[in-house]
Amino acid sequence: MGGNPAMRAGLALVVVVVAVVVGDVGAALPRFAEAPEYRNGEGCPAAVAGAGVCDPGLVHIAMTLDAHYLRGSMAAIYSLLKHASCPESIFFHFLAAADGGEGGGGGVGELRTAVAASFPSLRFEIYPFRADAVTGLISASVRAALEAPLNYARNYLADLLPKCVPRAIYLDSDVLAVDDVRRLWETRLPAAAVVAAPEYCHANFSRYFTENFWSDPQLGDRVFAGRRRAPCYFNTGVMVIDLRRWRVGNYRRRIEVWMELQKEKRIYELGSLPPFLLVFAGEVEAVDHRWNQHGLGGDNVLGSCRPLHKGPVSLMHWSGKGKPWDRLDAGKPCPLDHTWKSYDLYIAEAITAATTSQLPPSAVQDSEGEGRHTAAAHKGKMENRGSKFLFICGTIQIDSLGFGLENPHKVEAEDRDLSTD
Ligand SMILES: *[C@@H]1O[C@H](CO)[C@@H](O)[C@H](O)[C@H]1NC(C)=O
């Protein structure tokens, strides 16, 4: 026994197969290149020794982090650092599912390792978010993805972040900053405001709630009576939140009360957005629209591409169904997805001559940049490819790029759709 060469070869094969399977399980997260170095420029606030996260000179960014959207988050972080005048003064607060989410992998430890590998000097903390904090409050909505507990994590920022953090900018994972986020950070919040965000008053606000809601004598218009201004739709993917006022006013509880009512009577169709509108519409401080150029994910129904809105752009948001990384991988990018790609740190599996020949023509064409990307990553550092784009000056005037024409009908339709993100 054991002397048979064929048997030994068979055993060796089994060992190799087992190793490959085990290796796959361990490699749940995709691989990312290390981002280029970044340094504070002139006139940045000096770090207060020993202050850590409580340093008053910091800009605090809060985002969720999970395996599924990690590629988006990595690009978003990179874009924020790249365009910041004081990148070393940005502190990132990441909320991640405490149980690592579905599908295994992507646990807090793995996410921490992945972020630190791409951004070795990034100042960040990851807060485990317990899904059971919200699962009992979530009702079925139009799109299953919107019911993911992590979508509701933004409601819990004030509970999770250290008490010394006075405000935070909450950002979705499908955004790119193309301007210095400190400008958004310095948004003035009048005493009455807890949240600042771009508002969209041309969107038909009544469509975010059901007939049940508007016809109920206790609800409907009564809910918004006495607000600072007329209630308008705003997108919760980009918000400046005063965490101290939030805590004092117990706004997490106010949101939960609406989520509980939703379980009794169906007052809205969407996920995490409507409770925010119920609490904050008409109360938010308006921010310039340049800070949420949303809807770039495309039309939810048609899957079509969308241009930027008219006006300057400081932050691009791929809200909606389509995500740039999916379309790029499929070889069918929208025009603006190429901008996103210049911030993509993802290392695709090496494209060999053999696999390239099997790809459809469009994918081969598109893999040109990807191949360069992979080669650069092998050198241990990604070249700074963003500089060949137009963002050096901070913001871009979109009219000059030819995307400016706006169709009012289209905008209206979009605002209905984008609310599903
Ligand atoms: C807004 O939407 C509601 C409900 O769908 C509709 O009844 C109303 O006519 C719309 N208003 C405008 C100005 O389009």
Describe this structure in words.
- 33% of the residues lie in helices and 12% in strands.
- The protein is of the alpha/beta class and 421 residues long.
- The radius of gyration is 23 Å and the shape is globular.
- It binds 2-acetamido-2-deoxy-beta-D-glucopyranose.
- 2-acetamido-2-deoxy-beta-D-glucopyranose binds at residues 204, 206-207.
- Residues 1-27 form the signal peptide.
- Its EC number is 2.4.1.-.
Task: Please state the structural category.
Answer: alpha/beta
Low-confidence stretches: 13-26, 353-421
The string of secondary-structure elements, in order, is HEHEHEHEEHEEHHEEHHHEEEHHHHEH
Total number of beta strands: 13
Q: What do the pLDDT scores average to?
A: 79
Short account of what is shown:
By secondary structure, the protein is an alpha/beta fold.
Compile the SSE list and pairings.
Elements (H helix, E strand, L loop, with lengths): L4 H22 L32 E6 L5 H14 L6 E8 L10 H11 L4 E7 L27 H4 L6 E5 L3 E3 L3 H5 L9 E3 L1 E2 L10 H5 L5 H4 L8 E2 L3 E5 H6 L2 H14 L8 H8 L4 E2 L25 E2 L1 E3 L6 H6 L7 H5 L11 H4 L4 H18 L17 E2 L10 H11 L3
Parallel strand pairs: 1-2, 1-4, 2-3, 6-10
Antiparallel strand pairs: 4-9, 5-12, 6-9, 7-8, 11-13
Helix pairs in contact: 9-10
The structure holds 2-acetamido-2-deoxy-beta-D-glucopyranose.
